[in-house]
Description:
Structural class: alpha/beta
Bound molecules: S-adenosylmethionine
Number of strands: 10
Oligomer: single chain
CATH topology of the largest domain: Cobalt-precorrin-4 Transmethylase, domain 1
Order of helices and strands: EHEHEHEHEHEHEHEEHE
Distance between the termini: 47 Å
CATH architecture of the largest domain: 3-Layer(aba) Sandwich
CATH class of the largest domain: Alpha Beta
Number of helices: 8
Strand order of the largest sheet: 3-2-4-1-5
Mean pLDDT: 96
Low-confidence stretches: none
Amino acid sequence: MSKLYLVGIGPGSGKYLTKEAVDVVNSSEIVIGSKRALNLFPDMGAEKIELNAQNMGEMLKLAVSKAAEGNMVALLSTGDPGFSGLLKSIQKIKGNLSVEVVPGISSIQLCAAELQIPWDEANIITMHGKGFSSRLLPLLSNGRPTIILPNTTIKETVNYLIEKGIDPKRASAVCENLSYENEKVVKTSLEELLGEKFGYMCVLVVY
Length: 207
Ligand SMILES: C[S@@+](CC[C@H](N)C(=O)[O-])C[C@H]1O[C@@H](n2cnc3c(N)ncnc32)[C@H](O)[C@@H]1O
């Protein structure tokens, strides 16, 4: 029976790839993923198809149709496909095709490990691709740490929180480029975060 493999590749470094992810990718005939994701599998013999923000919709449809034709297709999703990953988009278009999800280590998990936050006791929320969620502000007053995948820059997100009345002195942390050589972890107040420079790959924690 035709099946599409949706493979979680972890936060970025090869050391956080699971053996199952490597085995599935190395057995696949077609592997679709971002350049960064494809580069994690130097030994694969499959046809590689690069996916990027511009061709995303088209490539997801291609993954479904190639798998439906009977090819073994692996679609690579950063972190875990089920958390702010490709699972939701694939569920919308897969029709009758069966899908197997190979879990990966999420940036949320690595962030929780780095900051030693027991994440069963944390609020976890993504704003990635959605904008500021009305769910966010109530979470910040329930006494638990909140782990956030931001939609915009850290600066914009922190400014939004302060504008909405969150104490600028509130303890917070940013984990940037987790698992990469340029990984950076900053633990400070919200207002102090505004003085730091961060790129796009960040997880924000508000304590
Ligand atoms: C489309 S979401 C994918 C999340 C992914 N499914 C997961 O489980 O981590 C992409 C966002 O995840 C976060 N992210 C992914 N990898 C990261 C890393 N290595 N370090 C920090 N944040 C990361 C960033 O906020 C990035 O904008």
